[in-house]
Specification:
Blueprint lengths: L1 H7 L8 E4 L16 H11 L4 E4 L5 E2 L14 E3 L10 E3 L2 E6 L17 H11 L4 E6 L10 H17 L9 E4 L6 H4 L13 E2 L7 E19 L8 E9 L4 E7 L6 E20 L4 E2 L1 E5 L7
Parallel strand pairs: 1-2, 3-6, 6-7
Antiparallel strand pairs: 4-5, 8-10, 9-14, 10-13, 10-15, 11-12, 11-13
Helix pairs in contact: 3-4
Length: about 300
């Protein structure tokens, strides 16, 4: 197995992920398998040091289903292995969602009319990538060794839909103010969340786990998607938040969520407003946010 793994990792260019599924040969004719996990990991690290090792591996974990849906509350921070030495320790172990573009994982002519629609694929995207996960979308080759025409059409349709939906960030360069800022306004001010720079961020003072940022869009704008991103270089912190909009008299709730992590996409009923507010209701430690965006989509999901 190591020889085969070594050949695969040496002769086909850069590999971004190695998926160890962990099958154990169960069943009436199955044989319990013995796995040399440390040995397999060593081969991957040596030959493809930038590749992540997924599922039965230290880098990426399986979300727990094959429908492409992450949890509403998805923590990338997970307990370390349950050993006496690791008790109480945490590690960064983000989730990966997997789903097939077809009912099954392999190509069947009888399923040519059952390929997922662009609308269905968008729903999956919102509930995987939009819930602090990554998405592995399976597209099986047909008997020609090619992707079937309908599958390709849906993939291109999904790409076009995502490009269209997320083309215009309605909150970009909005005026921003916050209830609290950690020390340096330029370094950690609220304007950093709408400057288009993924590496800049807003942070609160140590010990401040409840805070808000208010955005003035300059004029009323129609939106039905909010996208938040934490500064995960500093970990995942936010436990609960709400996005609100000003109706001219009072703040109205647009949508709320729990975890944010790398990315949280929140579909909401379409509204038109000039002022929007993000309120961090709970955070494990002082809150951070690297990005806040607003979009309008004809297909906004749930």
């Amino acid at each position: 197995f190591k020889n085969q793994l070594g050949e695969l990792l040496s002769n086909y260019g850069e590999i971004t992920e190695v998926w160890f599924d962990g099958a154990c040969g169960e069943g009436p004719n199955g044989k319990k398998q013995e796995y040399d996990w440390p040995g397999y990991y060593e081969v991957v690290r040596r030959l493809q040091p930038k590749a992540v090792i997924a599922i039965c591996g230290p880098d990426v974990r399986w979300v727990g289903n094959e429908s492409g849906v992450a949890r509403e509350t998805e923590w990338s921070v997970q307990p370390a292995e349950l050993t006496a030495e690791a008790a109480g320790k945490l590690r960064w172990h983000p989730a990966e969602c997997d789903v097939s573009i077809r009912p099954g994982w392999f190509y069947h002519t009888s399923e040519d009319d059952k390929v997922k629609t662009v609308e269905q694929l968008l729903e999956i995207y919102y509930q995987s990538v939009g819930r602090n996960s990554v998405l592995l979308l399976n597209v099986p080759p047909d008997r020609r060794g090619l992707f079937y025409e309908v599958d390709v059409e849906r993939l291109l349709g999904l790409r076009k839909a995502l490009d269209t939906i997320f083309k215009t960030d309605l909150a970009l360069k909005a005026a921003a103010k916050a209830s609290n800022v950690w020390e340096d306004e330029l370094l950690c001010g609220p304007a950093n969340t709408v400057d288009g720079d993924p590496e800049s961020f807003w942070a609160t003072d140590d010990g401040v786990s409840e805070a808000w940022i208010e955005y003035d869009l300059g004029e009323p704008k129609k939106f039905n998607l909010a996208v938040l991103q934490e500064n995960i270089v500093l970990g995942q912190r936010i436990e609960e938040f709400v996005v609100e909009w000003w109706d001219g008299k009072e703040w109205k709730e647009g949508s709320r969520g729990t975890t944010v992590g790398y990315k949280r996409i929140l579909p909401m009923t379409a509204v038109e407003a000039q002022k929007v507010r993000v309120r961090i209701l709970r955070s494990r430690v002082s809150a951070t946010l690297s990005s806040f965006s607003l979009f309008y989509a004809s297909i906004a999901g749930r």
